[in-house]
Amino acid sequence: MIERHGRYRRRPADRRRRPSDGFRTTTPESFQRIVHSAVLSLPKELLHQMQNVQISIVDVPPDEHNNDLLLGLYEGVPRTERDGSQPLLPDHITVFRRPHELRATSRHDLWHLVRDTVVHEVAHHFGIDDDRLDELGWS
To answer: What's the pLDDT score for residue 40?
Structure first.
């Protein structure tokens, strides 16, 4: 397959990696700044209670989530399920860049979408499930 610039492409582009529409940040670094700003916008009391949590940014969700436009993923043991008897690996929150950019229509919209994702995944860290998030109006 030859792309429009005359270069040979071995296989078709992955739609999740190259969104055809939507807002696209200029660089991965600028998206990282947006995520950092969204985390810092959380209430200070909440930030002080977050312990042993790693937040990372990945372009697209893993293949097992191929059919979903997954925005974020929490992996770990929620604080409500910990008994304190054994040390745990850090909890991990992943924010997926391309699905956010595909849904956002502007930089402002992107920031709010990222913040909603961060709030959602941090809530899972504190043991708040999706049903309770709906009740609270946070999802």
So the answer is: 94
Which phi and psi (to 5°) does residue 53 adopt? -120, 130
**Domain count across the chain:** 1
Q: Is residue 88 part of a domain?
A: yes
Determine the Cα–Cα distance for residues 38 and 116; give it in Å rounded to an integer.
8
**pTM check: above 0.70:** yes
3-state secondary structure at position 94: strand
pLDDT of 55: 95
Q: What's the chain's Rg over C-alpha atoms?
A: 17
Strand order through the sheet with 91-96: 53-58, 91-96, 72-75
The H or E element containing residue 31 is helix 28-40
Instruction: Give 10-residue mean pLDDT values along the chain (139 residues).
Output: 53 54 72 95 87 91 76 88 74 93 88 93 87 74
Is 3 a member of any domain? no
Q: Give the structural domain span for 126.
A: 28-136
